[in-house]
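Thread: Modeling a multi-component assembly for a lab meeting

Hi all, long-time lurker, first post. My supervisor asked me to bring a structural picture of a complex we are working on to next week's group meeting, and I have zero experience with this. I have the sequence lines for every component (337 residues in total). Could someone generate the structure of the whole assembly? Inputs are pasted exactly as I received them:
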Amino acid sequence: MTPLRAVSGRVPSMQTESSPQDQPLASPAGTGAPHVVVVEGLSKYFGDRLAINDISFAIRPGECVGFLGPNGAGKSTAIHILLGLVRRSSGTIRLLGAEVPKHHQEVKAKIGVVPQIDSLDPDLSVEENLLTYAGYFNIPRRQARHKADELLAFFALENRRQEIITHLSGGQRRRLLLARALINEPQLLILDEPTVGLDPQSRHLMWERLDILRQQGTTMLLTSHYMEEVARLSNRVLILDRGEIVAQGDPEELITEMVGTEVFEVEGTDAELDRLAAEFSQCDATLERASGKLYIYTQEDCTRLVHLLGEQRTWLRRPSNLEDLFIHLTGRSLRES
Ligand SMILES: Nc1ncnc2c1ncn2[C@@H]1O[C@H](COP(=O)(O)OP(=O)(O)OP(=O)(O)O)[C@@H](O)[C@H]1O
Ligand SMILES: [Mg+2]
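Re: Modeling a multi-component assembly
Sure thing. I ran the full set together rather than chain by chain. Output:
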């Protein structure tokens, strides 16, 4: 068994030379290792509703792929299909080299899952939840106990070992869910909003633990609405909107290419913002008006902008980020799917 160690510091994220969209079936350069996940032309209808529309992507060993999209975009549906919980309408899927759902039984034991909706057994204790789950993988009892001890320590749950689930806080439950997902030492970890509803302390602890797993080479597919979480943990993102992949690649590269390097957020009256917008249109910048603000996304160091903004009442200059990319690709309005 690979021991879990709480280590400090970060390792550089593993960058890829080309996007899997270009070469969905190729092996990672130089490693000869096959992709952990290969999805091609996957679609899913629920009745007339097209929840997943012809998506293709691949995940290399050791990658952490951030799976983003607005509510109802189809992330959980795609995950459920990968896990054999929902039937696909069309497309092919290979997990750890095996075609699924046909060979799902064979790969199930190599996958760990943190579901969006808590699926812990409320009548069992923390430890019993882990041991019962280990039983589904036919892990010998002694080995399961040893692993459970290690995981309880790793997720700071040791002193809650005998507690029943209903007595745990939300953060403790999420930590236990992640511990449970690791009981079978999975080669692929699928996380559907693992830190939803957690306070900053619990979220940071989860990030630390996920980062350690990532450093140890665990391949991850991570769904989250926390852009900071995805930016910290993922070396590649896959953005889904209305069931379609609208972008995938290295997050920094996508941000620079599609949004720009810097963002100016300017407040002012409509007339002031109109005047500024007209002046800024001379720079290499993309403008957006939303919620009484003017957003200016720049590709260049536009000193002229700073000069013009000097007289404005309130403005903010900051580096562009993943949230800007997300909004750029999926819009600002609430999705009613
Ligand atoms: N069992 C189902 N029957 C009918 N429609 C479904 C079912 N499951 C999901 N859907 C629909 O499929 C679409 C995608 O839902 P899904 O849960 O995959 O979105 P999501 O990206 O995970 O969203 P969220 O961020 O809110 O978790 C939605 O329109 C949803 O209503
Ligand atoms: Mg979901």
